[in-house]
Each structure stands twice: as structure tokens, then as C-alpha cells.
Write the C-alpha cells for this entry.
Amino acid sequence: MDKQTVLLRMEGIDKTFPGVKALDNAQLTLRAGTVHALMGENGAGKSTLMKCLFGIYSKDAGHIYLEGKEVNFKSSREALDNGVAMVHQELNQALKRNVMDNIWLGRYPRMKGLPLVSEKQMYADTMRVFNELDVHVDPKMVMSKMPVSQRQMVEIAKAVSFNSKVIVLDEPTSSLTEQEVEHLFRIINMLRDRGCGIIYISHKMDEILRISDEVTIMRDGQYIATKPAAELTKAEIIRLMVGREMTNQFPPKLSTASDEDILRVEHITAQYSQLSDVSFSLKKGEILGVAGLDASGRTELLENIFGAATRKSGKLFKNGQEIYNRTPKESIRNGFALVTEERRATGIFGILNIRENTVVASLKNYLKFIFLQDKQMAKGTDDMIRAMSIKTPSQKTQIRSLSGGNQQKVIFGRWILTSPDILLLDEPTRGIDVGAKYEIYQLIQNLAKEGKSVIMVSSEMPELLGVCSRILVMSGGRLAGEVDADNTSQEEIMTLAAKYV
Ligand SMILES: Nc1ncnc2c1ncn2[C@@H]1O[C@H](COP(=O)(O)OP(=O)(O)OP(=O)(O)O)[C@@H](O)[C@H]1O
Ligand SMILES: [Mg+2]
């Protein structure tokens, strides 16, 4: 197909929710055989625009043309039947059912002449799609038994199985490993070669510049610009998204670490993972980074310290006293908090509002005798909304109606409010836009300035170098080394990260 052929055109799209104008004359033009990145800060309206296309929301105004014909899908089923598929930012799967059920739900292959589902046919059809995409997942595996990244691959396979012309991927790589991202990119390239149009939403600038042909940028629900990716730089994208020059990605570093050890970790070895014999200490007021490749044991380290995974051996000392942190509950009592990387999948109470989601981990701070103090909870939540610039009409808004990145921020704020002495952060800025990242770095620094200590796992090396004082490097479940963040390089860290693989 000719690359100039316009597959999809959306123009003049408006959408208002109570208290928010989510889309204001938004537009998008997608050509056949291209990857089109859709970018903008958290809450800019990216997901909403795509949900208007996909029939999940009905637009208040505007027109959508698919191959020149005006369409107005009333349901996602109708969109799918007309060749438009979408992989959502928040996976919405039937977790108790198996992989093939999830793929063919609502369109099961029937046995010839009978009203019965042909399991055999379904299995064969699933394998056909998986083979084509080089996906290695058992079609009979129950969804809940699989890691989020595999569930995401199943969702992508499902989109492909509809033979769609337009495929929307809303932050598809937020929980994929580097190898899985490469795999996804091979799939995307294959679809592009077939003449599909792919709309790709992501906050990862490097990915965008690598995979996309064109980039459309939105701000506050409005269309800002569409440009060929080859003509854009990171700095230019940031400027268009944020609406001003952003010269610094990181706040100036402060030296907050004292000489006192607050935590000593001695020879920690996990029961059920490869994490083995890790020892280090953490100073009061220090921001300690943890680097390493995927599956190097970074997350396991945090989980073991927090008692969210079983320790086989090893000891923990806080201020010189031995502590045990056998369960998360005990760890919270000992002044620890863990912000997990799968916040959206594991941390959200969708139907509760922002305030409830915020204070749920720190309720005891708001308790007077047996009464919860509403005013204080409201104030705590307000402070958090301000500190993290959460975009919401009110703290009574249901959390599930916030944009994905803003949901992340609420969960982050929840743990800050427990006022821990030691904060364990796993990928704290995943899915968060550049401007908000800066705010989170500042927040981490402020906590350190108050004498709190932070251990921060990240796969973004510039982030570790820009925020931490010291960086531990994990490799194959072991500690491969420790570097001073101000006197090291990405090369040195990468070399250490490869030590035991
Ligand atoms: N169902 C809803 N009810 C109320 N408000 C909503 C709903 N869905 C989205 N919004 C609001 O519309 C605005 C745009 O949200 P949207 O999810 O489209 O942002 P986004 O660009 O996808 O951001 P992110 O990068 O954080 O995912 C936000 O202010 C959000 O709170
Ligand atoms: Mg979104």
C-alpha cells in the first residue's frame, strides 16, 4: 500500500467529562504502512482520543474517517469488526480464564453445524497467531498465572488476530523487558510492512524516535503539531509537549547523606529467586540507586528487604538493631515503604476516590481514638495532589477516571504519606511524563533532605546518575559492585551489570 494513503483521519474532536475538558478540537491523521506516535504529558488526552475512536467514549463533536468513510463506532466490538484494534494502557482481561479464551471471547469458533465451541479449532487458531508473531505462550495457561508482560503480549496477539488495519498500542512497553520490547518492535515492523497503521502511545522518547515515522503532540486536550520523526529531537518533543523550554531534566543534586548508617543488609539470600548473598549499607538521608539488567535481582532485593518475598538467610539491622521484616506489615511498622513497579496492576482500588486511595496505607495517622479525622485526611490528600501536580478536578474523583500517569502519582503519594524512614522505590517514574518526573525527583530529594533514606531501582541509567549519590549494580542475582554516581559512567555500570550473566 502507498505510504501516502490516509487510513484514518480524526478531526475537531471534543470530549468533556464532569469538571474536565479532556479533548478540545483534537486531530490525528494516520497513513497506511506507518507508525504514528501520539505524545503528550500525563492527562493530555491521548488515551481519551483513542477511546473515542474505539467506541468506548462517544465524542461530543468532531468527525472520524476510516479509509475516507465517516465512522462512529458505538462499541469496541464494532470497532474491531471494522478493522480497528486497541491494546489498552490498563489491561482488562479475564484473569481466571485461559489465554485462548481471552483471545476469542465473544467470537469462539463453532463446531460444524453445532452450537458448540470447538476447543480444538480455538487452540489451532491461537497457535497460528502465536507462531506468526513468534510468541511463546501456552494457549491453555490461566491468565492470572502469567507475568504482566506476557499478558500484554497476549493482548497484542489478540489485536493482530482481528486482522485489523489500525492498531492502537497505549503504552505497550511499560512492563516489558528489553528483549520483549525488541520482540514487540519486530511485530510492529511486520504489521507496518503489511500496510497497517499503528498508533503508538509512549513516554519513552528513545523508543518513539526509533520506531515511529510521524509524531503527533497534544497538550491539554489540544492538537499541537504533527511532524516526521526524523525531523524531531528529544528537546524539541519536550518543548512541544510542555509548552516551554525545559533545560534541566534533573533538579540540582544536594548532598543529603549523613555519616550514620540507618540500614545494614547482611548476606541476604532469597528462598525462591536467584538473589544471593547481597550485603550493603544505607546512610541516613541517602538516595541509593540500584542498577542492573532485567532479571538481575533488583526487584527481588527490594521485596526481600520488605518481607514481600521469602528470605532464606541473611540479616537486617536498622540503626544497629536487628530487625526481621518478615511480612510487609511488620516492615511498615519498622518504618519501611515499598512502591512497586506494577503500581497500576497491583496497587489501585479503582472505584474508590483519590482521597481513599491516598490515605489507605496511612490510616493510623488519621485516627483519633476510633474516629478517622476527615479534615486531616482531606488536607493530607490536598498536599499530596499539590506536591505531585496530580491533574484532577477534585480529591473525590474516582481514581480510575484519572489518566494512567496520574494514577501512578496517587499510589506514589500514598506511600509518601505513611512517612517511612526508609523508602524503597521500584521504577518510580515509569509511565510518567518528563515534567512530572522532575517533580518526583524533587520530592525524593526533599524527603532525603528531611533525613529519610531512599533505595531506588531504575532501568533508566541517566535517572540513577542524575538523582543518586551512590549506585549498587546487580548482576545475575548478586551484587557486582558499587559506584559513586558523580565519578562513574554508563559504560562502567554496564560492564558491572554484565559481570555474572
Ligand atoms: N472516564 C473519565 N471520567 C472523568 N475524567 C476522565 C475520564 N477519562 C479521562 N478523564 C480525564 O481526561 C483527561 C485526559 O486523560 P487521558 O487518560 O486521556 O490522558 P493521557 O494523555 O492518556 O495521560 P497518561 O499519559 O497519564 O496516560 C484527564 O484529565 C483525565 O483525568
Ligand atoms: Mg493514557
Q: What stands out?
A: The mean pLDDT is 88.
